[in-house]
Design a protein that fits this description.
- The structure holds two protein chains of two kinds.
- Chain A is built from eight helices and ten strands.
- In chain A, the strands form two sheets. In chain A, strands 6-7-8-3-9-10 form a six-stranded mixed beta sheet, sandwiched between helices. A four-stranded antiparallel beta sheet of chain A has the order 2-1-4-5, covered by helices on one side.
- Chain A has one domain: P-loop containing nucleotide triphosphate hydrolases (Rossmann fold).
- The two termini of chain A are about 30 Å apart.
- Chain B has a domain of about 220 residues.
- Helix content of chain B is about 70%, strand content about 5%.
- Chain B contains 13 helices and four strands.
- Classes of the chains: A alpha/beta, B mainly alpha.
Chain lengths: ~250, ~325
């Protein structure tokens, strides 16, 4: 399988703390890859580097064969690399429909449909809201949404650019079992119908086993184990704080 | 489906504009007419702050830089170079817009308090520069500058306080319309998103540096337009046009009226400027009154008067929709 996205020998330090030490991960077209690892292993830093929030010290990010290492996060979104955050950060003064509208306006796909084709844009917006189950809440202030709805909003924002790759950072954290099941179903339908590739960061091995084609475990800034989701039980983290919470959306850690 | 962010402009605003239109006919003296005229220009200036500080969330504490650039350009170009006022006004607008582009470019990589600090420093640097700067008249007989200022040669003999009043009122209505159009536009929506969460905006494909720059450019152009009007009405540019008080005044009006609402800061300026100037309250008293009004507003209207009312109306609409079972 040819790589849609390749994080090639990524190295990153914050001061004297070497967070990533030459990590290489490839994600094929239509592939769902899980990223697993203990707290502080560098998962979120790698996610930030892949999506353009943080620049690596060494290494490069290739997307569809092109080097996008120097591209900003917004440019990568427009190019088809989308992401959700571990802690959703909604626009407090915008409604759900306005929040999705922003992403649709800024994505190149949305922009093309806006030009001289008003109804097309509106249909696209409505269809995103219906698909993510947010149509009934479309006029709600985004800040007043439940955790489950915030995750849906993150999904709606992410898929508005018609991405080829989505990075999901701890998508199931702080969710009820029902919300989690609905999000998993949404992810599956996106994967099946749009052939979107996913990199799924999670502390939950059950989710990874259920959804992923392949799982990569990183530890101490290195790829420590790689295999099939069914073999995840064979991976024994050397660190003794494997199942903690790694932090937030921001650079570092 | 148009997003219901601002709703319809209430009839009370239209009625207010009607009253302002008829007010001079009620026999106002020239002093009050002048106070109201400057009040209209101050309202445009406060609205311009809200474009960058409220809508786009880039707290500018040096907004007087754009206003002062326009007034000084008008003064220097008409008095020193002998340009006709309309030409000088056009150049002043361009220069204040260019100042906005420069400040926007410098502040684009910064966030939150650092934007405030940078704009504060730039505004104060300009204030200090023009406070100590002397310009010599072409005749060489006397110098201008500093607190005394530089005259603005309007060259319009038929200009009167009445004409100034109605011109400033028309200017306020036009600028309010422009600012509301900006706020309701796609760009306005993107700026509101940027103001809410830079991280989510970046992840939504917003080129935040370009939009921050653009917000500063739009705000500076409008503040510059207010400055041109001010220069024409007052007939002098002084170092006070760059003052920190003027920058804080805009931010205060926005905090009281409601950041990001456009109408709120404009109404706050229209109410408080004539009240403070027209009643002859000394400067120390004015500062105290500003502080009291700000404290009262933050206690009872945390999002400013218009902002809090808008939030309450939205909450009522939401409750109504839930009640309808939608």
């Amino acid at each position: 399988m040819s790589d849609l996205l390749l994080a090639d020998r990524i190295t990153k330090s914050f001061g004297t703390n070497r967070v990533l030490r030459g990590v290489t991960i490839g994600i094929g077209r239509g592939e769902v890859v899980g990223l697993f690892g203990p707290n502080g292993s560098g998962k979120t830093t790698l996610a930030n580097i892949i999506t353009g929030l943080t620049r690596p010290d060494k290494g490069r990010i290739l997307f569809e064969g092109k080097d996008v290492t120097g591209m900003s996060m917004d440019a990568r979104f427009r190019a088809g690399i989308a992401r959700t955050f571990q802690i959703p950060d909604p626009y407090p003064s915008l409604t759900v429909v306005e929040s999705v509208r922003v992403a649709l306006l800024c994505s190149e796909a949305g922009r093309k449909e806006t030009e001289g084709k008003g109804p097309g844009f509106q249909e696209n917006l409505d269809s995103l809201l219906v698909r993510t189950g947010l149509f009934a809440q479309r006029f709600w202030p985004a800040a007043k949404l439940s955790q489950g709805c915030l995750r849906r909003l993150e999904f709606a924002r992410a898929i508005s650019c018609r991405p080829k790759f989505i990075l999901l950072d701890e998508v199931s954290s702080a969710l009820s079992a029902r919300d989690e099941a609905e999000l998993v179903a949404l992810m599956r339908s996106l994967h099946r119908e749009e052939d979107i590739s996913f990199l799924l960061i999670s502390h939950n091995p059950l989710i990874l086993e259920e959804l992923c084609d392949r799982v990569v475990a990183i530890e101490d800034g290195r790829v420590f184990w790689e295999g099939k989701p069914g073999d995840l039980a064979k991976y024994v983290p050397t660190s003794h704080h494997a199942h903690g919470d790694e932090g937030g959306n921001h650079e570092g850690g | 489906m148009k997003p219901p962010r601002f709703g319809k402009i209430p009839g009370v605003l239209v009625a207010g504009a009607g009253i302002l239109l008829l007010l001079p006919l009620a026999g106002l003296d020239v002093f009050l007419l002048d106070v109201l005229t400057i009040g209209f220009l101050t309202a445009v200036y406060a609205g311009s702050w809200d474009i960058v500080g409220g809508l786009a969330g880039q707290i500018s504490l040096g907004h007087a830089l754009f206003f002062g650039t326009a007034t000084y350009s008008c003064a220097l170009l008409t008095s020193l170079l002998g340009w006709p006022f309309p030409l000088a006004a056009g150049a002043a607008l361009l220069l204040s817009t260019a100042a906005g582009a420069a400040v926007g470019t410098l502040s684009a990589p910064l966030k939150g308090p650092f934007v405030a600090l940078l704009t504060l420093a730039l505004g104060e640097a300009a204030h200090e520069f023009f406070l100590g700067q002397t310009f010599f008249s072409p005749r060489g007989a006397y110098s201008w500058g500093g607190e005394g200022g530089i005259p603005v040669l309007l060259g319009i003999p038929w200009f009167s306080p009445w004409i100034a009043y109605y011109a400033a009122l028309a200017f306020l209505l036009l600028c309010t319309w422009i600012m509301l159009r900006i706020a309701r536009s796609e760009t306005g929506l993107i700026w509101t998103a940027l103001s809410g969460s830079e991280l989510s905006a970046r992840a939504s494909g917003v080129d935040i540096r370009r939009h921050k720059r653009l917000a500063f450019v739009a705000a500076a152009a409008l503040a510059g337009a207010a400055g041109v009007g001010f220069a024409a009405c007052v007939g002098r540019a002084t170092a006070d046009d760059f003052s920190l008080e003027l920058s804080f005044q805009a931010a205060t009006f926005a905090a009281v009226g409601g950041r990001g609402t456009i109408v709120g800061p404009i109404l706050a300026a229209l109410l408080f400027y004539p009240l403070l100037q027209g009643t002859g309250i000394p400067p120390a008293g004015r500062v105290l009154l500003y502080a009291l009004v700000l404290l009262f507003t933050l206690r009872f209207f945390p999002a400013g008067v218009a902002g809090t009312l808008r939030e309450r109306a939205r909450a009522r609409r939401m409750a109504g929709r839930k009640g309808d079972g939608r």
